[in-house]
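Issue: ligand-bound run for magnesium ion - logging full I/O for the record.

Environment: standard queue, default settings, no custom constraints.

Inputs:
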Amino acid sequence: MSVASQDNAMKTGRAARVFIYVFLLVFALFYLLPFFIMLVNSVKPLSEITGGNMIALPQVWTLEPWLGAWSTAQIGVEPTGLRPYFWNSIKMVVPAVVICTAIGALNGYILTKWRFRGDTLIFGLMLFSCFIPFQIVLIPMARILGILEISGTTTGLVLVHVVYGIGFSTLYFRNYYAAFPTELVRAAQIDGAGFFQIFYRILMPSSGPITVVCVIWLFTNIWNDFLFGASFASGGAAPMTVALNNLVNSSTGVREYNVHFAGAIMAALPTLLVYIVAGRYFVRGLMAGSVKG
Amino acid sequence: MGFLDIKQATKSYGSVEVLHGVDIAVEEGEFLVLVGPSGCGKSTLLNMIAGLEDITTGEIAIKGQRMNGVHPSKRNIAMVFQSYALYPNMTVGQNITFGLEMHGTPKADRDKAMGEVAELLQITPLLGRKPGQLSGGQRQRVAMGRALVRNPDVFLFDEPLSNLDAKLRVDMRTEIKKLHQRLGTTIVYVTHDQIEAMTLSTRIAVMNGGYVQQLGTPKEIYDNPANVFVASFMGSPSMNLMEGVVRMQGAEAAVEIAGSSGVPVLLPVNVAAQRLDGQTVLLGIRPEALTDPDGADKNARRIVTLSNVVDVTEPAGSDTFFTTTLAGKDTIGRMRADAVAVPGQVAQMAINMDKAVLFDPTSGDRIR
Ligand SMILES: Nc1ncnc2c1ncn2[C@@H]1O[C@H](COP(=O)(O)OP(=O)(O)OP(=O)(O)O)[C@@H](O)[C@H]1O
Ligand SMILES: [Mg+2]
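Outputs:
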């Protein structure tokens, strides 16, 4: 495949080249269009939108919709804006990602370097958990959260996401550590390092790429989750996604599209930021993990 | 009782036994080499001494202390791995002192020990570098430094030179030998290279299929192999083995083999073999015992000269190896570089029968 396309690249003339660039540019614009529309409409007064001009740049630039979405918009029945829910999401996503990554790394370390009877079976079961559809666990999970008396709280959501995320983080770290030379672990054992010392001092410093992969994956998934948020934490503990839905669906008064657009961008911003900051490590880490294992 | 005692040690993975009742006693200051083909269990035995693998049955003791179940770091051993196993994220200095740090040695003492070892191995300028920035030979030195700094009772080496190129391997071999002579620490060294085994060791354990085939000094192993496996594994080119029939000549036994023209040749042997009269045996002759008449050992008691066709010559500079047909098989000999031998023509050859050994053709065991 790649050889063939390289051959083509050698032979293409100037005209073909221009065509390819135009073609790619059109597609890039096509994919950017929705974001562009969200962006321009989030800085327009509502009257310009209802006037029927969605695509045009604003005649009057305003940050009102952003401020409104952030702190005063009607979410459900309370005029709180998205701010408290944004913090809910942060309070959910940060602990969940940290716990999942830590446990995944530890699992990967144990499953590859401290093999025990039945370890492949356990890994298989953890892997299986990645493929259980969310809907199936809703009711049992609600029951468990009830028993633990954390239903409707952010803590409950953290637990749900940790349970779901561990399968993936374990998979990532196990495959990465499978390629990590076992002789290093043995050398460290002879040097007198214990279980955790080997983990901190020998494996962790080499785990950068896979940690980035794991964090991006978990952050995006947990931040964007709607089903668990809506099922287990509606009301005051709702995460950003649920609050955004409530904002858009509030039926009182006029529909403030500009506020909705601003809110939607706000909800997408953290994952976008994570990609921009760490995205290039993502590909690198995925490659590193997939070489062996 | 030795310094390092391995008594009837076995190792099983599940139901498969890969080491069968190994018995080796190593004296203090010895350089024991475990040698054998791939998969014979050398690394497994070494890892059992190190404590990285459990001992299934039997016992391993160091300085009279039973080591079964003792953690690797508590055995006062140090190990050099085939891949060197240097910690990639630490500098050379940190690599060397990591073990001391884990054992709670104060920083000042660690630095002093590191300085001494670095001096000894001439790696002082490298102390601030990461392993990724070192050449193979330098990594090898650092790996040895990491072992040395612990001042262990026993050094364990698992094929430490196999990742180096031929020249460096010879240099490092000499260096390891010097180091042993200087420090006098007990060493157990694994290799599958029989030349390394011969040159480094004070004693060799030749292993095959999970059994120790023979344990002895390099000279014993080379001159008096216990069986066909040891005879053919040790030595390069390996020992010639040919089938022959024992014939008594008065009180002396001789082995009759066929020469290149089919004419039988009688080779007197130094074995009391009356009981074997008329039986077929395997006669083992090392290449250096088959040579040109002028190159033959003047002190040998049994020299047999014969005329045989030279098939191939391979000049190696210092000597010339040649192939001739004895007992119907290609047989390798070694003559002086200036001896005349033309492929396809008959040449005079001499066999030093003092060095010849006999084996039982069915069991492969030595006949003495
Ligand atoms: N974890 C394991 N499970 C099952 N069998 C094993 C295991 N480790 C090693 N073996 C077997 O034990 C035998 C000895 O292995 P070992 O690594 O000691 O060989 P070796 O002599 O060091 O060979 P090499 O020169 O290739 O390093 C081999 O037949 C190998 O297949
Ligand atoms: Mg080995």
